[in-house]
């Protein structure tokens, strides 16, 4: 299985996304259901109560039996990808991968999968100075647009204010919103945005990305930590503080997960060391439930 480090080392986001997604999609079938769409699928015998308008009378005349024409309709969705590109996403793991690098790979792979499923895919990158927004489309060039936006994005500053975020929730549009963030916030601003998106768009899949060195606190000796968004610094002895750090982190993670699920978000915690297939599996599971 291709690890995030190997995919990142390709220095080619379209190729990395395709490699990760196609390995996952192997054996997957396009999401379709039987219905009354335009693409003919099969016949089935008439049963009492069926709509007589769907009977194939020519076949009935030839065979003296009654059959209904069934069709297949695509169960495509609108998928809205949301990237937290604030400065805390620049935190680098021991494997050299930033949280932003992992998020890019993940969202690129999800965009590839959604495109293969026939979905209209859009992307919003959250910057303090404004929103970089690509409206959902299902045309052939959309994937290249998404890749370019992800490749050229850098993480800076703090989370946008409510006024900057207002256009995202200005109108109702049914969609599956996939947010990738480390959920570092000053005053519940990320939660507030996702609550509004849950109301206006429907489903929210929240992928909470943390570096493994944060989760396992792999630091040693005297060390200075700097808040990448505020510039505040903290000096401590990592060996002495390891147990306290991990206890407080676990308490925060448990509270975060509980609150997210209470708000109706489909919440999953990820590490920058995790293969992408776990998140892709959750995306496909949620997508199938909506189809």
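Q: What amino acid sequence fits the structure above?
A:
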């Amino acid at each position: 299985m291709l690890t995030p480090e190997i995919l990142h080392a390709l220095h080619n986001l379209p190729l990395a996304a395709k490699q990760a997604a196609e390995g996952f999609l192997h054996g997957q079938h396009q999401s379709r259901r039987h219905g009354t769409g335009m693409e003919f699928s099969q016949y089935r015998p008439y049963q009492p109560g069926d709509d007589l308008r769907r009977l194939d009378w020519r076949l009935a005349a030839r065979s003296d039996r009654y059959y209904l024409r069934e069709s297949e309709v695509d169960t495509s969705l609108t998928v809205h990808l949301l990237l937290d590109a604030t400065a805390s996403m620049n935190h680098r793991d021991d494997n050299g991968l930033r949280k932003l690098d992992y998020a890019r790979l993940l969202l690129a792979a999800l965009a590839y999968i959604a495109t293969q499923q026939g979905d209209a895919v859009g992307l919003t990158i959250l910057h303090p100075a404004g929103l970089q927004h690509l409206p959902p489309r299902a045309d052939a060039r959309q994937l290249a647009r998404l890749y370019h936006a992800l490749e050229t994005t850098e993480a800076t500053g703090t989370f946008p204010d409510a006024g900057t975020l207002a256009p995202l929730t200005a109108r109702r549009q049914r969609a599956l919103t996939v947010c990738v963030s480390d959920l570092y916030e000053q005053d519940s601003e990320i939660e507030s945005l996702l609550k509004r998106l849950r109301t206006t768009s429907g489903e929210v899949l929240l992928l909470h990305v943390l570096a493994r060195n944060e989760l396992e606190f792999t630091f040693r000796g005297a060390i200075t930590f700097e808040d990448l968004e505020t510039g505040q610094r903290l000096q401590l002895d990592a060996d002495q503080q390891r147990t306290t750090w991990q206890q407080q982190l676990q308490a925060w993670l448990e509270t975060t997960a509980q609150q997210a699920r209470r708000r109706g978000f489909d919440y999953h915690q990820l590490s920058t060391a995790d293969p992408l297939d776990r998140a892709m599996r959750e995306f496909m599971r949620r997508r199938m439930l909506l189809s």
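Q: And what stands out in the fold?
A: The first helix runs from residue 4 to 9.
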